[in-house]
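Researcher: Batch entry, complex prediction.
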Amino acid sequence: METRSMTLNMGPQHPATHGVLRIQLELEGETVLKAYPIIGYLHTGIEKTAESKHYRKVIPLTDRMDYLAPMSNNLGYCLAMEKLLEIEVPEKAQWARVCLTELTRINSHLVWVGTHALDIGAMSMMLYGFREREKILGIYELVSGQRMMSTYFRIGGLAEDIPPDFDTRVREILDLFPSRYDEYEDLLTNNPIWRNRTIGVAKISPEDALSSGLTGPLLRACGFKHDLRKANPYSSYDKFDFDIPTNDGCDVYARYLVRLEEMRQSLRIIRQALDGMPEGPFVADAPGIVLPPKERVLSEMEALIFHFKIITEGFCPPEGEVYQGIESPKGEIGFYIVSDGSPYPYRMRVRPPSFVHVGALDKMCRGGLLADVIAAIGSIDIVLGEVDR
Amino acid sequence: MNWTLILIQVVKVIAVFAVLLTCCAWMTWLERKLVARIQTRLGPMNTGYQGLLQPIADMFKLIFKEDITPGHVDKWIYNLAPLAAFIPATLSIAVVPFGDSITLFGERIDLVISNLNVGILYVLAVTSLGVYALIMAGWSSNSKYSLLGGLRSAAQMISYEIGMGLAIVVVVLMSGTLNLVEIVDKQSSVLDWFVFKNPVAFVIYFICAIAETNRNPFDLPEAESELVAGYNTEYSSMKFGMFFVGEYANMITVGAIATTLFFGGWHGPILPPIVWFAIKVAVFEVFFIWMRGTLPRLRYDQLMAFGWKILLPLAVLNVLVTAFFKL
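Model: Structure tokens for the complex:
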């Protein structure tokens, strides 16, 4: 009898494709012969839009790429611009940035653990993840007034000084979260069903991981101790003491363990950042680039002019190009900015981890089952806003 | 033929059917409430006290929804499938005794619809009909997700039915009868409950029963993260509702049969038999819901491997050992 393989179109409207990823699957029964991801259903044109915005007005756009990790995106862009403009960011701003980006890492991983577990069938995990995330969103709201698209970082530092009860609010999280992580572990780590569903699933060999350009937790779950925070420290990460969790499993379970441990390490970093938070200005002294404080704008002529000029004309960085990669929760997010000396970026190119990781989906899924595709998508933790920026 | 007897029978059928359907409806409420508690949510709150009227609201919503029949389906089978899911699920309750006999207006009334002498056989036969509904729905929908859901359910239910049958054989061996009323009578004291006499059989039965009812962690046929909604993806309105009610009716039936076979049916101290029966069934239902809130889902091949390589040999061994001791 002649048999044909079945083509199954998974997505873009599918409960487990995390937004609007579409995957064309070749199936033999339930065995996957080929998985072909098709992107572009959430095209926002952020890179192109950036070309028609002043440099400082690009920051809100970056929030909307990886909307689960807004602060990381902000940081990547701001660091790139600071490199281009050669601005020295004051220590307090750097430490606050570290604190907030680590909270962002936890935020992103919490959503990941929730949705990933939901995909595999443990639906309560999602609610637990979101319950904890609520606290972090509270911190975002505290510092920036926004819960998701915080846009708190500025070129040269922060938008405003960190509020007085920031310290106590973050410490509440530090005290609460370890026990919550233990809860997740109780539910999942040694659960035989969870282990069956994840161990040995969606494997990718270390060589393939390198050649596909995987970064972040996916690469670390293949046994590579690579983390930009250590390998190429930025924002004074070299002054913090933390470990890089790795695992040799190369599978979904290894990625799960790596991310869970990362959440614990992030708490460690946040504690150090809070304990050692230096005093001083929260934004660099760079007239013409950094907005002067509001009191001075209302009382001094100079400041008013600077304010007016920055808002209406922007500022012109020197001609040149710059690349800055940082360790976002999902992997290396890099900003490559070309300046032609005008107030608008000539080109902004983002190296988004999710986009690169989706490319490795086929390698992970081949020979697995239909259910493994879901586990694989969950384990690479994609955000489609970042894939189709 | 005595007309009173017929009348009594009709009243019994209607009463049991009505109670079963009502229980199905409020099972959805219970499930939503309990799962919400597990997930630190409130669940339905606005329709009545603690959302108690939610099932009624849901029912009206489903009835008034447009009943869409996609153009590419096989209409006959497509329309038949919801009925085929719903009816067998309600049928097997007919042989389950839910109390001792009572005397009303000088007539002795057994609290069981039909005191069938091959009751267990009947239960097995009727419950295995349920799988046809899923295959019919999956096949006739002419959609790939539905088809995969239908195929999965066919394989799953057939595999687990064997284990379930063998677990029940153990009960039959121990009690020496196929009649559910007599099986209950053999378990009149707590120590005689078959769950204590042969816990292995109960565990096997219970695992298989979860697989039969397509509940988590064996809810593969409708694994929403993989197959959208599985076999009922293309159904809407009350046809979808029928599958839904069928599933809940199945859960209640399974709980009732587990109570009857392993937990002494309606036997219990102080409280009236019907209350004991209800309590025992309710415990099972809560357990079902609890598992749904806690466990991830197995993968298809793992489910089959577990069924054939672990559960089945264990069930066979259990039957042999029990038979040996009965000799």
